[in-house]
Amino acid sequence: MFGRKKEAPTAQETVDQAAAAQAESPKSGGSTGKGAPTPRRKDQVAARQRPLVPNDRKAAREASRAAMREERLKTRAALDTGDERYLPLRDKGPNRRFVRDVVDARWNVGEFVMIAAAVFVVASFIQNLTVQSFILMAFWALIVLVIVDSIRIRVLLRRRLTEKFGGPNQGDVWYGISRALQLRRFRLPKPQVRRGEKVS
Known about the structure:
The protein is an all-alpha fold.
């Protein structure tokens, strides 16, 4: 009789009870409710989250190494066969392939610079001033010939690229000159034309 009266529900509790009752009861118009409570925000966020790295890092590293190894093998094979799909970026494109063919089809003075340098090093041990002077003059004469031949290659490549493609792209001419300075057997990608072969 004199006991404490039960406290009246707060406004927030009343709203929560009404929302729960509405979710449980069928909606007006004959349609049914959701049938399940709305998921909490933290549950939705957790469901959307994905790991940034695989759970098995060792397997992921092995897979990455295998993919890189396979890519290197494809690139190496392309350097031997000239397959455009797997060539390095600097060697890709019809312009670069044409430049390689033009350079590889001719004799280039620059090919012999490395051989001449090796001969010059060996000859420097000869204790004969006449022989050393002769070899030194021959070496410098070869350098002059290389410069002249490089100018000829530059003119040739610009003319041929203009005829075929309307003009050289940036770096095409220097690409050809630097290739002409290498021994034929050490050039990469490997030559795909014979010396003296007509390139069109």
